[in-house]
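Input for the complex:
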Amino acid sequence: MSLLALDNVSVSFGGVAAVRAATMRVEAGEIRGLIGPNGAGKTSLINAITGIVRPDSGSIAFAEQPITALPPDLISARGIGRTFQHVELFRDETVLDNVLTGLYSHHVYGVAAAIVGFGRARQVEADARREAAALLEAFELAPLAGAPVRDLPFGIQKRVDLARALAVRPRMLLLDEPISGMSEAEADAAVATIRALARERDITLLVVEHNMRVMMRLAARITVMHQGGIIAEGTPGEIRGNRLVVDAYLGDKDDHA
Amino acid sequence: MRLSHVLIAIAAAPAVALPLFGSSYQIYLAELILINVVAAIGLNLLTGNCGQISLCHASLMAIGAYTTALLTTRFAVTYALALPAGIVVTTLLGASLGYPARRLSGLYLALVTLGFLEVVSIVIEEFPDLTGGVRGLKLAKLEFAGWPLNAGALYYFVLGVTVLAIRAGWGLQHSRYGRAFDTVRQSVIVAQALAIPPARTKLLAFSIAAAFAGLAGGLFTAVVGFIDPTEFDISASLRQITFIAVGGLGSVWGSVVGAVVLTLLPETLRGAKEYSDVVYGVILLGALVLAPKGIVGSLALLLGRFHGGKARLP
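Predicted:
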């Protein structure tokens, strides 16, 4: 069975269809690319999967459980994480505090324990800090743990965003343009990091990305959206040769493909 | 010993020694300051950390004050039980306000809390047989589980409770709940992506703020010995907002500093007589313009060993 299954998912905003009857399957362990020109409905699809917008029709299942009507925080708790296109970090907080925020649902103690501050709360907090420190280590952010995010270059903020998303311990991670705004060298490093991450932590990835060169190297399979619908799916090689895709997307001179 | 420990010791020493050298008025004023600190800590968790504006914090304080007062006078309950009972009642009422308000924010929330403030003051005024109405409620000398609360004992009791409240506020702020509050304030969508339930988090913030307000109200009853609805009107709520805004939003020490400074300020402005309100207003405005992160936030930036308005005190 597929880890993520979308069946005839449609999303519209005030009568304008953003996603039209999208059906797709993502298998566990896969790195799936999601491409399409601007306005193709990629972000709307991600918002539907994460519960931020409710589909008008269709159904979404994750690990064989329906999640279509769940609120976003419960969908995250089920194991679907995400990063944001325009890094939504807490700029005034430190790198460590940003990552700690992601540990909310896994390092649990009650309000009374928090008020008292000793005993269980202290012990769990210490665990949380250890886990956060390990994540910072994995993303080579450890020396920056105490630095406020706002002072960091964009490429590093992207890494913080990724580390925070992983703190929620997702089984599947939706990456919305993970390398946008990065230099070529940073992008290559990020691709290596993302691949390693998927392999070592056994996380299934759905990656939205404009940069075709990167996508061809990263994804084993690619799903193509155009005008709200899914028009093709296949290996990077197949997608490159697909007539519809070339017309809709790769042939588009305005895009930085 | 860290600098922050030294600073706290310097600030705490006169507070502990006050009954030895202070006049009864100075002790009374210090008690009011401590009560304001307790109320401000609760409001700051709700508004500064969780980003929910509340105009009815004074009403919640009123609920704590009246519950404690009624239990001790009408039902002869000892203060040792009446105070926690006041906290429980206030928390429950705060939660029942927070439940419908948990999906609101900004202006709508401000209006709902303003409505709550009105309802509470109407209830107090319309049931004079129970609450004393607009004429207020006079209290007999309190006893604490059999012990009479004389001036010195009461002061140390209020001081001790305030220290515990500071500790509790600090613990909450630096817990997973404090981080959840900060997250919900900054972005509901990110909170959800991190498996933090925004509505439940806001409800919790409301309940916690109410608990602190209830405690402050219960202490107020004991200290002042007379309560009437004007003590808990909209201007009291607004004053509490200025405490946290001037002291530092989202910081327990900001609540402490704001409540201390702004409770003392009108006292020190007595010399300015009829201009004292103007001077108070100018100082308030100046503080907000010059130190938008509050006194603690600005000090933190100056000292350079703090980050973004969130004090790293112990």
